[in-house]
Write a structure and sequence with these properties.
By secondary structure, the chain is an alpha/beta fold. The longest helix is centred in the first third of the chain and has 16 residues. The relative contact order is 0.16.
């Protein structure tokens, strides 16, 4: 069973979302802190990002934020974190977040959240890292994405060994348990077609 020092959390930055998503973000941040797992996230003070950070901090957790200077200049950065790294680009942000983390979780979010979680899943597929990746599927938010993955496997665009690279659960506790036991297939297991 895998242990985690820090988990990267991707999530939305909009404040205009339903209370159930905010509650899930709060529960996730609190659980990680209670388990002694640090949070790495995009450094923002708004939306689910701010809620995750505030919940983890309130529960005594470590919270590391990584924000591009362009967003920091708009005063979107959280000023109460354990540490806030200001970088020069989105690419640098994503790379540092990945380096600081032992696993990745996406809460509900928009374009950026999807882009980030799919990118680290692709990195896992190609063995650029061997860290688990998961979705917190609050009230079926990611059901369509999970259906697309199943369809892509059926059509041959995603190899069968990668069907479960992106784990999914409806509670933070269940997702953390899945990530602790997740297996990342070796590149050689699927790269050469039969």
């Amino acid at each position: 069973m895998r242990t985690f020092r820090r988990i990267c959390v991707y999530c939305g930055s909009s404040n205009s979302v339903d209370a159930r998503f905010k509650a899930a973000a709060r529960a996730c941040g609190t659980l990680l802190a209670q388990r002694g797992i640090g949070v790495v996230y995009g450094g923002g003070s708004v939306g689910l990002m701010g809620i995750v950070a505030d919940a983890a901090l309130a529960a005594g957790g470590e919270v590391l934020g990584v924000i591009p200077d362009k967003l920091q200049a708009l005063e979107l950065g959280h000023d109460g974190l354990t540490e806030l790294f200001v970088v020069d680009s989105m690419h640098a942000r994503k790379m540092l977040m990945a380096q600081l983390s032992d696993g990745f979780v996406a809460l509900p979010g928009g374009f950026g959240t999807i882009e980030e979680i799919i990118e680290v899943t692709t990195w896992s597929q190609l063995n650029y890292h061997r860290k688990p990746v998961g979705l917190l599927n609050v009230d079926g938010y990611y059901d369509h994405l999970l259906a697309w993955i199943r369809g892509a496997v059926t059509e041959g665009f995603i190899h069968e060994p990668h069907r479960n690279l992106l784990q999914a659960a409806t509670t933070p506790e269940d997702l953390l348990a899945l990530l602790a036991t997740a297996k990342v297939p070796e590149l050689k297991e699927w790269l050469i077609e039969p």
